[in-house]
Write a structure and sequence with these properties.
about 130 residues, mainly alpha, Alpha-Beta Plaits, three-stranded antiparallel beta sheet, about 55% helix
């Protein structure tokens, strides 16, 4: 599907086309409920200052990602997604697993610049910058 550039400004047209051309969603093959992962993550945020700091780092990345998208820089988007994924894995022991890591390594070996698992982080889809 092509981005409909008649629906908005020239800037959003360029952003939409950039995302369409450089961002992929890849199904991990894993579906499960996020409840236990999010419960552990919330418990860790209440009891572990290092987890709180990781969460703040993730939130602080928003401006850098916005800038990378506006500059249409897929390598920087990939680097930021990768860093986000590294930080996210530190929030709960239930985030990520061997099969997800193997898929991610395969995507990187195929030329992806970086990515992360969307949602709670224990299944669903990888968002990958290419």
């Amino acid at each position: 599907m092509r981005w409909d550039c008649n629906a908005g400004s020239a800037l959003w047209c360029r952003v939409g086309r950039f995302l369409e051309n450089h961002l992929s969603l890849v199904f991990t093959g894993i579906t499960r409920r996020a409840n236990s992962t999010l419960e552990e993550q919330n418990k860790n945020i209440r009891s572990d200052q290092a987890v709180v700091e990781r969460q703040h780092e993730i939130v602080a990345m928003v401006d850098a990602m916005q800038e990378a998208v506006l500059m249409r820089d897929p390598k920087e988007c990939g680097r930021l997604l990768h860093h986000n994924w590294e930080l996210k894995q530190q929030l709960s022991s239930k985030i990520g697993e061997d099969s997800i890591d193997a898929l991610y390594q395969k995507l990187l070996s195929m030329g992806a610049y970086g990515g992360k698992v969307l949602g709670a982080g224990n299944g669903g889809h990888h968002s990958v910058s290419r």
